[in-house]
Amino acid sequence: MSDVLIVRGLRKRFGDFEAIAGLDFSVRAGECFGLLGPNGAGKSTTLKAVLGLVEPSAGTIELLGLPVPARARQARARVGVVPQSDSLDPDFTVAENLLVFGRYFGLSHRAVAQRLDELLAFAGLAHKRDARIDELSGGMRRRLTLARALVNDPEVLFLDEPTTGLDPQARHLMWDRLKQLTTRGKTIVLTTHFMEEAERLCHRLAIIDHGRLIALDSPRALIRSRIEPQVIEVTGDGVARWARESAPRFAKRVELVGETAFLYCGDLDSAQRACADAAAATPPLHTLQRPANLEDVFLKLTGRDLRD
């Protein structure tokens, strides 16, 4: 597959602060590519640089074969963007928001009107065609923002935390729509704080922290190569003492976070023996055994400290 986005040596400074510190990655046509990182890691700044909305301090960006920022306007005409905030016009109906937005791309009223039924059906909003924005739920507004980003039939879709604030039902519906887009051959670049979202949707993903790339691969490959395969979560009275004295006999790595001990085990047998030992402790400890997931990888690489 050809690369639709190539980023090499990207740097961005704001005074003495370096928000992006030499990023290198590429996005293949037809894939969903995730950009993950804690708050302040440089994800949003990277997206803005890729779209030509901020001037890089160094490095090169090529989007759809066009150099950015030199030809950013031409590149943006061929992409769609779902920002963190919906920014829908409350004075217009659902249909009018799509019709007006199409004019920003130089599309005629007739051209957008011909695609209106398709876009509304895709967003599950055909029954809300003439509704005002304040009549929509949060999930409906998010789906309308996605439909709006598709008005110009973009080759690449950029989504900045598209499901933040949505309930589980709305989130799953949004995931279904995004999977449909990749099935149709659309390329998606996605930032998210939901590890389950990234694990479900992304073919590959990059984890960045402090503006630097720290991992890049498929979710499955990252889980296989970067983390122990089995995790035991242990809670209960005396868990700190048990974790200190007994857990190292079973786990390759132990983390104590508040009232929970996380045991990272190299095999299923060790995990099962750890569960049995914790259950036999006095008083007995509660255990949850599970396979490692992308969130475990993310926390191992970026730490558990709170980011503001």
Kindly list the characteristics that best describe this protein.
about 30% strand, single chain, alpha/beta, globular, 11 helices, six-stranded mixed sheet, Rossmann fold
Summary of the model, kept short:
This protein has 308 residues and is α/β, with parallel strands linked by helices. The chain has helices at 43-50, 72-76, 94-103, 109-122, 138-149, 168-183, 195-201, 219-226, 239-245, 268-279, 294-302, and strands at 3-14, 17-28, 32-36, 58-63, 66-68, 79-82, 156-160, 187-191, 204-209, 212-217, 230-235, 253-257, 260-265, 286-291. The radius of gyration is 23 Å and the shape is globular.
Which second-level CATH architecture of the domain at 1-78 and 156-169 and 189-220 applies?
A: 3-Layer(aba) Sandwich
Class of the domain at 1-78 and 156-169 and 189-220 in CATH? Alpha Beta
Q: The CATH topology of the domain at 1-78 and 156-169 and 189-220, please?
A: Rossmann fold
Portion of residues in helices? 25-40%
String of helices and strands: EEEHEEHEHHHEHEHEEHEHEEHEH
pLDDT averaged over residues: 94
Low-confidence stretches: none
Rg value: 23 Å
Looking at the structure, what is the overall shape?
A: globular
Q: Profile the largest sheet.
A: 6 strands, mixed
What strand line-up does the widest sheet have? 6-7-8-3-9-10
Which structural class do the helices and strands define?
alpha/beta
Number of strands: 14
Tally of DSSP helical segments:
11
Proportion of β residues? 25-35%
Classified in CATH, the superfamily of the domain at 1-78 and 156-169 and 189-220 is P-loop containing nucleotide triphosphate hydrolases
Gap from first CA to last CA: 38 Å
